[in-house]
Amino acid sequence: MGSPAASKPASKGVSRVATEFKLVFAVAGIFFAFSAFAVLQEDVYRSSYGGERFRATFLVLIVERGVNTLVGLIGTLVVRWGSNDRTRGESKSTATKMKVPFFEIATSGVSQMAAMAAANEALRFVSFPTQVLGKSCKSIPVMVGGIASGRAYPRSQYVQVLAVTAGVVVFNLGAPKKGPSADDDDVSSAYGLTLIVCSLFFDFITAALQDRVKTATVRRNPHLKNPKTNMFESMAWTNFGGVFVAFLLAVCTGQLADGVSFCNRHPGMQNAIAYYALASVLGQLFVYFTITEFDPLVLSTVTTTRKIFSTVYSAARSPGSAMSGMQIGGCACVFAAIAWETLEKYRKAQGMGLKKKRL
């Protein structure tokens, strides 16, 4: 009689350990993969090879998005093979298949690729910390679009956006001048910041297109309750849209031929691009795993911490790009605002959990 009762706490303990192990695995994976991704991104776009720098951004995206597409397709085939084995022998009415909105997913991948292309290109003209902080302003275009459509935001969110904006401005104003070439540096920096703004614009477009993906998935699968594409399908078709357009742009701009020629002259660049693509694949897999297993808040917290680490590490590994006191203050302001936003989301999630328990 006592054994069933004793087994319940034991099973709960095992389940908790398994969950905590998954969390550690997910956090370590994201932290490692994207920290490596950030370092390798700098190596590709800011390192000098024989006195010249790599300029073929679209060629890098062809490789990076292509590898992600391949891994996504392999994962999709494995998942389908497993599901076919499980549903073998079931009637057609029982074994219903979900219709995937391929076009909508691929379209969102195009805008995602454009955002990444602009951000990568910006690295040729601004430092990595500047790029990271600039990309932290994603909430600004989202808020502007929301206000334009009549949406109201809490006062705390306006303060957070203002703090991020102020931090980025202070960071850029605090950049030390570098001798006689200061005017040229200012022009290059302005161009790099313009590219970051373009990247933020495409991030905004991507968010809207991803909402269309969710709507299309529900519309095409009325027979299913809460239909969702699996992580590998999303990974495959999102990256396919990106690699298709990146290839066309690489051909039209001449970056395909120029990039291949550069890699042939400097074999070290081939390794840098390959490692960069591998880090991207690992990062995407860990992101999808975290979203599947845990609340999105966990992902937000981990990525915020990783950005802080990557920014500090980038400044430490490049003495020539060391941050001034004013820049450190601006950086701290931005990350404090992001941490505050994450804490607000956590409190809101906790409040919703308590309400559900009371009900």
What does this structure look like?
The chain has 359 residues and is mainly alpha-helical. It has a domain at 29-79 and 99-152 and 183-314. The chain has twelve helices and two strands. Strands 1-2 form a two-stranded antiparallel sheet. A hairpin with a 2-residue loop joins strand 1 (48-49) and strand 2. Helix 2 (57-87) packs antiparallel against helix 8. The longest helix has 45 residues, at 2-46. The two termini are 33 Å apart. Mean pLDDT is 79; it is low at 90-95 and 179-184.
Features:
two-stranded antiparallel ribbon; mainly alpha
Summarize it.
The protein has 359 residues and is an all-alpha fold. The chain is 81% helix and 1% strand. It has a domain at 29-79 and 99-152 and 183-314.
SSE layout:
Blueprint: H1 2-46, E1 48-49, E2 52-53, H2 57-87, H3 102-122, H4 128-135, H5 139-148, H6 155-173, H7 182-220, H8 231-253, H9 255-265, H10 267-293, H11 296-317, H12 325-358
Antiparallel strand pairs: 1-2
Q: What best-fitting shape do the alpha-carbon axes yield?
A: globular
Q: What's the main sheet like?
A: 2 strands, antiparallel
How far apart are the termini?
33 Å
SSE pattern: HEEHHHHHHHHHHH
Which structural category fits the helices and strands? mainly alpha
Q: Give the radius of gyration.
A: 23 Å
What portion of residues belong to β-strands?
under 5%
- Estimate the helix proportion, in percent: over 70%
- Mean pLDDT comes to 79
What's the β-strand tally?
A: 2
Number of helices: 12
Any low-confidence stretches, pLDDT <50, length ≥5? 90-95, 179-184
* Strand order in the largest sheet: 1-2
